[in-house]
Amino acid sequence: MGDCFNSLNQLGISSFLLEGLFWIGLVVLAVYLIGQWLSSFAYSDYHETPLEILQKEFARGNITEAEYLIRKKYLQ
User: Please, what sign has the CA dihedral across residues 54, 55, 61, 64?
Assistant: First the structure.
């Protein structure tokens, strides 16, 4: 009779663990999908063109005027 209760107890613990893993997996999946959905809005509205990036680099002083003109000619 003791063996019967041990088997039921082990089955109950196993199903409890499996149910817990299921819910954890479901929550992780939901968080991941919501994150992907929200990140799609962050960069979809505006994309800088290569020329705009080049102009900003020149304005910051990261490249010289000669480099700017060469790269600008290459982009056009």
Answer: positive
Give the pLDDT of residue 1.
Answer: 47
Distance CA 37, CA 10 (A): 40
- Contacts of residue 71, defined as CB under 8 A and 6 or more positions apart, other chains included, come to 54, 63
CA distance 68 to 58: 6
Give the predicted TM-score (pTM) of the model.
0.44
Contact 50, 74 (CB under 8 A): no
Residue linked to tokens 């002083």: 61
| pLDDT of the residue at 17 | 78
